[in-house]
Amino acid sequence: MRFAPTLALCLLAVPALAWEHTVEWRFQGPEIAGFRIITPDFEEDPELLEVSLSHQHYGDTVITIEADNGLGDCADTLSYAQGNPFVAVVLTANLNAQTMNGTTLVQCSTR
Hints:
Elements (H helix, E strand, L loop, with lengths): L2 H11 L8 E7 L3 E7 L8 E9 L3 E9 L6 H8 L6 E7 L9 E7 L1
Antiparallel strand pairs: 1-5, 2-3, 3-4, 5-6
């Protein structure tokens, strides 16, 4: 009789490992006012990507993404898209990744 309540409590205490919290940004090439990559001071610190966006109706916005696994070719992708009216950029960040700081850039692509 004691086994069933104990088993139920153990199952409730296990975290949901399959849950993934992602955030996605989509914007056009002409909206990119600039971007910069900030390299970490310490080995454990993530790289930072800052993208400055400017839209005539919505104003200015800065997107900051930490990336534990590096940024790959994202700088090249943003350089290609900047000012190009025929290119859209998609940035996707995983905010609960299984990394040291829990954040990583999953996707940096054009469409």
